[in-house]
Amino acid sequence: MARTTAEIKKTMTDAFLSDKTLREKYGLKEGTTWNAAFSAVSIENILLFVVAACCHVLEVLTEQWINETCERMDRAVVASVPWYHRTALAFQYGDSLVLDEDTGRYGYAATDEGKQPVKYVAVRDRGTSVEILASADKDGMPVPLEGDMLTAFKQYLNTVKIAGIVLNVYSRPADSIMVRAEVWVDPMVLSKEGTRLADGSKAVNDAVNAYLRGIVYGGTFNKTKLTDAIQAVEGVVDVELGQCFYKTQDSGAAWTLIEGNNYTAAGGSMVAEGLDNSLAYVVEN
């Protein structure tokens, strides 16, 4: 916000009075105020007022230019990955879009967060197209958009997108992950079945599930981080991670080996299957 002429002048007079050389030239004592040292019609007072007034006008003009520039930028559509991400989350189920004649952009007449079902979005730039993966939420977990809602969501994105851009929009169930591992445990904390002696919970299973839930939507499963999550469980002495497999809705019942250290889910999120059978526990002597 532009400073007033008085505020600018005070900054200048404070600097003037704090200068040791100027105080000696004018014979000013320490602590002397500007109004006490100079009259309203003194040449010094008039000069500083003129300079302060010019600075004030310059700041006002600069502030106006910044506001106008920001307003133009707000009206412009920057079709970046973050823009598509934000736009997908803004979808309102059951509301129609309105064209703003001034900006040429489509939007809603009013924002209603209660009508925004999309809670998870991953946007991937494929070079010649943009892929958008989206899900709703149920009990803190992603669930696919279905039926009329998915149809409306696709129509919404195709309406607000930049002309000429090809969008591929998907909403899929979570991928399934199978983890094979040998876990050495302290028998004073965990049983040979992996059950916590104190409360009967499956601590390692909980750690695997928590790791998968913690992966950002559209993110990557990492074997090293999974091993670290299991190793961090109280009572776990050592972990030897074996093969890991994934299964998508398109692959039916077929499991596919995860080659390398990472896997990015086609469905955007991942859930573990069969941990009671795929994890083997070894009691540490």
Unreliable parts: none
Biggest sheet features: 5 strands, mixed
Instruction: Give the helix level as a range of percent.
Output: 25-40%
Radius of gyration, in Å, reads 32 Å
Instruction: State the total count of DSSP E strands.
Output: 13
Distance between the termini: 71 Å
Name the average pLDDT.
90
Can you write the helix and strand succession as a string?
A: HHHHHEEEEEHEEHEHEEEEHE
Structural class: alpha/beta
| Shape designation | elongated
Number of helical stretches of at least 4 residues: 9
Strand residue percentage: 15-25%
Care to describe what's here?
This protein has 285 residues and is α/β, with parallel strands linked by helices. It is 37% helix and 24% strand. The strands form four sheets. Strands 7, 9, 10, 12 and 13 form a five-stranded mixed beta sheet that branches. Strands 3, 4, 5 and 6 form a four-stranded mixed beta sheet that branches. A two-stranded antiparallel sheet has the order 1-2. It is elongated, with a radius of gyration of 32 Å. The mean pLDDT is 90.
